[in-house]
Design brief:
Keywords: Endoplasmic reticulum, Membrane, Transmembrane, Transmembrane helix. It is a multi-pass membrane protein. Pfam families: Rft-1 (PF04506). With about 525 residues, the protein is an all-alpha fold. The protein folds into two domains: about 425 residues, no CATH class; about 80 residues, no CATH class. About 85% of the residues lie in helices and about 0% in strands. The protein has 21 helices and no strands. Helix 2 crosses helix 6 and helix 12 runs parallel beside helix 16. The longest helix is centred in the last third of the chain and has 56 residues. The radius of gyration is 24 Å and the shape is globular. It starts with a helix and ends with a helix. About 5% of the residues have low confidence.
Length: about 525
């Protein structure tokens, strides 16, 4: 299967997986958030999430990346045995990591270290290890491009977890912490059973990089858990879950499919120049597409964060600093999207001799990221954490761009400038951002910070008086509706400009799809 075919097939099935699981998760999280206080929600969104992801990242991510980069073997059975024997090494490591992480969480529990809280932490560790038991079969499924299996298993596990958690919370059968942990155990159990049913009979080089990557990805949550109150953790957790919905649903499948595509194209021998040109074309199309999507989030997200939170979570959450934090996160989405594709390429093509250098730079980025997080969280709270995350993404993007420039030195068809949208697209989205910000300041001035220029100078108040009396004193729904109409008009106008100015991009996308169908 060619690289472009792997990309399209992998992207399709991974999007189906992410859309189904994230939609289910979003709906169930929405109901769960209404049943929990900010303190209880913060416990699940920050502390329990951190325990679970830390165990899984440190135990499996290195083996996952290493196995996926193994050369394809003409003898299927020998390849399967090699993959399973290598991937199984994550299990003893997982035992040690689980014990260490849970012990650290119990010691750091402080005043919250009551019996129920301690039990919940141990249950989270158990859930992580149960999920880790399925890792060898997960890696084998990825190597065999069985994307549909992942769709079914993860979708079923997410649904089972949500239903069990909601039932326990709704009928108060257990304390919130225990209910959430029971749900995580159910999720892990369904994952394991699903892969065991599919494979009834049936590296190490990247472990350090996985630990560093996890520190980069979860460093802000570590700082938040260590320095902020449960209330602030709840606000940040809600925004992170909602703001990353697009990232997990769309950008993560692109990143994973791109990694598989670039890894496969590296396997081709005797066609180095052709393979390099193919990778350059795929990379250019992907980065440009995700850049446009990220810019759309940056242009429209900040002005509609309050309306979104008010509609789906109610006044209880929209009256906190969550809208402002979500607005900042919308800009962060752009950096996440671009970095995801660039790092997928780097990880798929970097040579072993360059891996040590890459790891050293990741250590530097980790130190800077954590230092910035500690400083900025004290200055700007949750918004400061996102700013630190953004600075981290900028450093990683810069390193990836330097790698690309060296990698494609002998490829005249590649240019760093072609990776990003043209000036007409940028101008259209900048105007859309200005128009929607102006609309929010005039139509819904109470949702804008006093530091805003239009609010601070009194321009917003003067223009608001020009609105019809029915709008000025109308309900939230009337003003929000008018604000949304303005945004929709700006979106249509911006989409028209993007369609015309990015014509060559759409041609390249169609060519990739046709090439995938033909191979």
């Amino acid at each position: 299967m060619g690289a472009d075919n792997v990309l399209v097939s992998g992207f399709y099935h991974l999007v189906v997986s992410q859309v189904s699981t994230r939609l289910i998760t979003f709906i169930l999280n929405l109901v769960t958030a209404r049943l929990l206080s900010p303190e209880a929600y913060g416990l699940a969104a920050i502390q329990f999430h951190l325990i679970n992801t830390t165990i899984l990242f440190l135990s499996r991510e290195g083996f996952r990346r290493g196995c996926l980069r193994m050369q394809r073997d003409p003898e299927g059975q020998s390849q399967t045995a090699r993959i399973l024997s290598t991937a199984a090494l994550c299990l003893p490591l997982g035992v040690a990591v689980t014990v260490a992480v849970c012990s650290l969480a119990l010691v750091a529990g402080g005043s919250e270290g009551a019996a129920q809280h301690s039990t919940a932490i141990m249950m989270q560790g158990l859930a992580a290890f149960i999920e880790l038991l399925s890792e060898p079969l997960y890696i084998l499924a990825q190597m065999q491009l069985r994307f549909r299996l992942r769709v079914i298993v993860e979708g079923g596990a997410t649904l089972a977890k949500g239903v069990v958690t909601l039932l326990l919370l709704k009928f108060s059968l257990q304390a919130p912490a225990l209910s959430l942990s029971f749900g995580q155990i159910v999720y892990a159990g369904v994952i394991l059973v699903g892969y065991l049913a599919a494979y009834a009979p049936l590296a190490t080089h990247f472990t350090l990089q996985a630990a560093e990557k996890h520190l980069l990805a979860e460093g802000s949550k570590m700082v938040m858990a260590a320095t902020q109150t449960s209330y602030n953790q709840g606000v940040y957790g809600l925004v992170a879950n909602l703001g990353s919905l697009v990232v997990r649903t769309l950008f993560q499948p692109i990143e994973e499919a791109a990694f598989l595509a670039f890894s496969r194209s590296e396997d081709a021998k005797g066609e180095r120049e052709k393979g390099t040109n193919e990778r350059a074309q795929i990379l250019t199309v992907l980065v440009r597409c995700v850049s446009i999507l990220g810019l759309l989030a940056t242009a429209f997200g900040p002005s509609y964060s309050f309306v979104l939170l008010r509609v789906i979570y109610g006044e209880r959450w929209s009256s906190t600093e969550a809208p402002a934090v979500l607005g900042v996160y919308c800009g962060y989405i752009l950096l996440l999207a671009v970095n995801g594709v660039l790092e997928a390429f780097v990880h798929a093509t970097v040579r072993s001799r360059e891996l040590t250098i890459a790891n050293l730079w990741l250590v530097v980025f980790s130190v800077v990221h954590i230092a910035l997080s500690v400083v900025l969280v004290r200055v700007a709270g949750a918004q400061g954490l996102i700013m630190a995350d953004a600075a981290n993404m900028v450093m990683r993007i810069a390193y990836s761009l330097l790698f690309l420039r060296r990698y494609f030195t002998a490829t005249p068809t590649f240019s760093l400038g072609r990776l990003f949208p043209g000036r007409h697209t940028m101008a259209a989205l900048a105007l859309a951002f200005a128009a929607t910000s102006f609309s929010q300041a005039v139509i819904m001035p109470h949702t804008v910070s006093n530091s805003n220029f239009l609010i601070g100078t009194g321009v917003s108040g003067a223009l608001t008086k020009l609105l019809p009396l029915a709008v000025r004193h109308g309900s939230f729904w009337l003003r929000a509706g008018l604000h949304v109409v303005v945004g929709a008009a700006c979106l249509v106008a911006a989409a028209g400009v993007i369609y015309r100015s990015e014509h060559q991009l759409w041609v390249n996308v169609r060519m990739l799809r046709q090439s995938a169908h033909m191979s």
